[in-house]
Amino acid sequence: MIGEPEVDGEQWPAADRDGAPQDVVVGEPLRGRARPPWPWVAAAVVATSALWAGGLSAFGDRLAAPEIRYRVADDLCDRFTASTLEGVLGSLPKTVPLKGGRHPALDWASCARENDRAGSAGTVHTSATVELHKKTDPAAEFALDVPATRIFFYGDEVGWDPLPGLGEQAVVSGSGPDDSLRLRVRDGGAVFTVDVIIYRGMSEDGGPDPTLAPVPHPGRETLLAAAVEDTRALMAALRRG
Length: 241
Prior knowledge:
This protein is an alpha+beta fold. It has a domain at about 75-240. The chain is about 20% helix and about 25% strand. It has helices at about 40-60, 60-65, 85-90, 220-240, and strands spanning about 5, 10, 95-100, 105-115, 120-135, 160, 170-175, 180-185, 190-200. A hairpin with a 6-residue loop joins strand 7 and strand 8 (about 180-185).
């Protein structure tokens, strides 16, 4: 037998002896009905707004446009003469300028210089790249270990060594063989990268080829000092007046 319907655990009022239903109060809310979730929604909106505002505050420096103190030349080889490096590595007459790109967010250009490989027992290569970040500050990613830099890291010597006194921040690739290094300098929105790589040729028996002129071997400290001086000269040549 089906019983009488219940609401909130109580039966509807039963009929009286004459069959007329007892008075029922209509319009009162049923007990146990869920209330609208608006207070929780409002609290969530307030919390989300606070987190968003905090995020903008935390990334304010990153979102702010950096100070522009330099310009980018179309022919960077006119500015990157590498005269100090030539003093320790010999003449670097072969030049490969690259205009790079021009964009509202980033301008860049590069220059590569090499020795005359004919008659030389190896290759001496140096290059300079200038990036001008105009919309976002490059500080956050400046000293990251990226795949393009792995050639300059050796064994457990992974990472960058700080180099004070050059721009706002300067680093050099961790100590390794003394024939290669990467120097990076950040100053405002500009990032300067100078690479030096020496490839040594070998004869069939694995030693230096006696028929070719030997490649210079200045040592890491001398190589780094020369790279620093040429980077300073490049920065001075590109600095806005």
